């Protein structure tokens, strides 16, 4: 409570803005204005966030004046703006980002759907996405499909309900229907596919050198003297499985080696299935002398099992895998791989999506291919 400087009245004194850093008051009894030093703003209860109205009441100004000051408007006296900002800071004011974004029709948030967040590859992609998004002023919402089509569809619906400005997606191994993507494209949502893409919908895409990398790995095995090369081919419905298998076949054809269907074994990226594939190959009248796994994880599992059975690597069977992580280099013998650059893939995908969000009237449908490199290690070095 403030006492009038002239008549000492208290009940008839009201706030009337402020002047040169001092709170201005008006006494209704004697009809005079006077000022006092502004006290420190009272902290708000933790249970409630400070609002623009709270700041306005504290200073005796209109909420619209506070709003303009907080938004950097130039039509307010500089001293008034300074006092509003000072009190807002003392009262721990935080803007309501959701309300602001809804007012603008955007949230500056991008959604990401990945198959498995535990895989180092996707962790690297997410790091790249986050790096670009943060620099561009975007937040990232991440969902994991856990290799389930139904979960992937629910993920997309949840992100749309959260009003994301765009979507980055790498499909689950179960996904063969893409209606949940088509629906959002029809609504004008910018979407970019990465790694596990589909050709049934027209979006921008960021892919690996799936064909080229597979060709290089199989070519390397052939150059090391392998003539019966088996392939752990992954889920047949997955586009990357199909493309990497084509690279395998092209390398055999290029070097004049026959294609033997008994050496092609599709799995679901599970350890039990890769070991079943190995049992199948070793039971053949002519077992393979080389194995190409389209996923490095399966290649590592095969290495461990071959060692357990005391089969010499690479002299009896050489092994290579598509993709890489630290364990592939540390295992004995170290695994020959086609090395990928997931961080750069994430950066590229995020940059492409944000560009499409900004220029949503002219979506880019570009397909960008990320370069990889063959890294030869002990698991295949016969010569």
UniProtKB/TrEMBL annotation:
Would the keyword Aminoacyl-tRNA synthetase turn up in this protein's UniProt record? no
Query: Which SMART domains does the record cross-reference, listed alphabetically?
Result: HTH_LACI
- Cross-referenced Gene3D superfamilies, in alphabetical order? 3.40.50.2300, lambda repressor-like DNA-binding domains
Cross-referenced InterPro entries, in alphabetical order?
HTH_LacI, LacI/GalR-like_sensor, Lambda_DNA-bd_dom_sf, Peripla_BP_I
UniProt keywords (A-Z) are: DNA-binding, Transcription, Transcription regulation
Query: What is a GO molecular function of this protein?
Result: transcription cis-regulatory region binding
Domain annotation HTH lacI-type: ranges? 50-104
Which Pfam families does the record associate with it? LacI, Peripla_BP_3
Domain of life of the native organism: Bacteria
Among PANTHER family, the record links this protein to:
HTH-TYPE TRANSCRIPTIONAL REGULATOR GALS, LACI-RELATED TRANSCRIPTIONAL REPRESSOR
**Which protein, by its recorded name, is this?**
LacI family transcriptional regulator
* Native species: Runella defluvii
């Amino acid at each position: 409570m403030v006492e009038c400087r002239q008549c000492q009245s208290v009940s008839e004194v009201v706030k009337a803005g402020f002047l040169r850093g001092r709170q201005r008051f008006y006494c209704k009894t004697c009809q005079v204005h006077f000022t006092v030093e502004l006290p420190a703003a009272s902290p708000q209860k933790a249970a409630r966030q400070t609002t623009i109205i709270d700041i306005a009441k504290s200073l005796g100004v209109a909420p619209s004046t506070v709003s303009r000051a907080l938004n950097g408007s130039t039509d307010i006296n500089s001293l008034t703006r300074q006092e509003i900002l000072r009190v807002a800071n003392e009262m721990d004011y935080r803007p309501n980002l959701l309300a602001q974004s809804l007012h603008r029709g955007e949230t500056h948030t991008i959604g990401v759907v990945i198959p498995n967040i535990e895989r180092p590859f996707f962790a690297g992609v997410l790091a790249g996405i986050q790096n670009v998004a943060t620099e561009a002023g975007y937040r990232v919402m991440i969902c994991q499909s856990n290799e389930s089509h139904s979960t992937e569809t629910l993920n997309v619906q949840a992100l749309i309900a959260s009003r994301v400005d765009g979507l980055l997606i790498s499909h689950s191994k179960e996904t063969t229907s893409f209606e949940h993507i088509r629906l959002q494209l029809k609504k004008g949502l910018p979407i970019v596919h990465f790694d596990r893409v589909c050709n049934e919908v027209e979006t921008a895409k960021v892919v690996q050198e799936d064909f080229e990398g597979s060709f290089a790995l199989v070519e390397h095995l052939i150059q090391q003297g392998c003539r019966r090369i088996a392939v752990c081919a992954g889920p047949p419905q997955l586009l990357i499985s199909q493309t990497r298998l084509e690279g395998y076949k092209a390398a055999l054809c290029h070097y004049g080696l026959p294609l033997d269907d008994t050496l092609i074994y599709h799995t679901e990226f599970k350890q039990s299935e890769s070991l079943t594939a190995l049992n199948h190959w070793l039971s053949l009248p002519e077992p393979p002398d080389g194995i190409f796994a389209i996923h490095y994880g399966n290649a590592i599992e095969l290495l461990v099992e071959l060692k357990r059975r005391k089969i010499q690597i690479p002299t009896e069977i050489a092994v290579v895998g598509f993709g890489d992580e630290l364990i592939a280099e540390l295992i004995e013998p170290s695994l020959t791989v086609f090395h990928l650059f997931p961080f750069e893939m994430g950066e590229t995908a995020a940059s492409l999506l944000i560009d499409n969000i900004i220029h949503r009237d002219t979506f880019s449908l570009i397909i960008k291919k990320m370069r990889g490199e063959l890294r030869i290690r002990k698991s295949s070095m016969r010569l």
